[in-house]
Amino acid sequence: MFSRRLLPVVTSVAKSSIPEFKNPFVNNTFTLMTYNMLSPYYMWPQVYTYVPDKYKDWRYRHKLLEKEILTVYKADIMCLQELTTKDYNSFWEPQLKSQINYGSKFIAKTPPKYWSRPLNEMDGVGIFYNLDKFDYISSSSIYLNDLLGIFSINELKYLKSTKITLTNGMGEPVGEDSLLNVLHGRNQVCLFVSLLHRDTKTMIVVVNTHLYWKYDEVKLSQCLTIMRKLNRIIKQLLMGREGATYSKIKILFTGDLNSTPDSLVVKFLKGDVVSHGGLNLVNPLRPYLNHFIYQDTSSADFEHTCYSGKLKGIFDYVWYHDTDFKLKSILSGKEVSAELRHLNQFGLPNENHPSDHIPVLTEFEILK
Question: Signal sequence: where (predicted)?
Answer without folding.
Answer: none
